Amino acid sequence: MTKNGARKFLKVPDNFRILLQQGGATMQYTAIVKNLAGRKPGRIGNLLLTGMWSNQNLNEMKKHCNVNVVANNISDNDCTRMVAHDQWNINPDASFFYFCSNETVNGFEFDFDTFPFHLIPDD
């Protein structure tokens, strides 16, 4: 019943299967990386290490792409404040940019009004 309702609501054709899976946010580490890594030939992902969740993502990213650590908030500041933006190492040839906006374990959270989105290459 749930699958049929989803199929109808989302207009999913009959030749596609609907899967209901458990996994939560950690499952998305793999799903996002696998879907975005091949957007550019180098298979590079920019990763801003901000705490425990992004560190877990680093381990998963290494399985599926080359990882460029933009800044390491864990080793440089013990997750208390972000590495200065002018010290970020952003690879313009990367397929994607990953950061965890709310590292709940350490209490580190970005303010979207001041996040330097202008530093992330357009694509």
Question: In summary, what is this structure?
Answer:
The protein has 123 residues and is an alpha/beta fold. Helices cover 33% and strands 17% of the residues. It has one domain (23-119): Type I PLP-dependent aspartate aminotransferase-like (Major domain) (Aspartate Aminotransferase, domain 2), CATH 3.40.640.
Strand content: 15-25%
Radius of gyration: 17 Å
Give the tally of structural domains. Answer: 1
Do you know the CATH architecture? 3-Layer(aba) Sandwich
CATH topology: Aspartate Aminotransferase, domain 2
Largest sheet: 3 strands, parallel
Q: Outline, from the CA principal axes?
A: globular
Arithmetic mean of pLDDT: 88
Structural class of the helix and strand makeup? alpha/beta
Uncertain regions: pLDDT < 50 for 5+ in a row? none
Number of helices: 4
Order of helices and strands: HHEHEHEEE
Approximately how much helix is present in the residues? 25-40%
CATH C-level class = Alpha Beta
Spatially, the strands of the biggest sheet line up as 2-1-3
* Total strand segments: 5
Q: CATH superfamily, please? A: Type I PLP-dependent aspartate aminotransferase-like (Major domain)
Q: What is the terminal separation in angstroms? A: 40 Å
Task: Break the fold down into its secondary structure elements and pairings.
Elements: H1 2-10, H2 24-36, E1 44-49, H3 52-64, E2 66-72, H4 73-77, E3 96-99, E4 102-103, E5 108-109
Helix pairs in contact: 2-3
What does this protein look like?
The chain is an alpha/beta fold. It has one domain: Type I PLP-dependent aspartate aminotransferase-like (Major domain) (Aspartate Aminotransferase, domain 2, 3-Layer(aba) Sandwich). It contains four helices and five strands; from the N terminus they run H-H-E-H-E-H-E-E-E. The chain has helices at 2-10, 24-36, 52-64, 73-77, and strands at residues 44-49, 66-72, 96-99, 102-103, 108-109. A hairpin with a 4-residue loop joins strand 4 (102-103) and strand 5 (108-109).
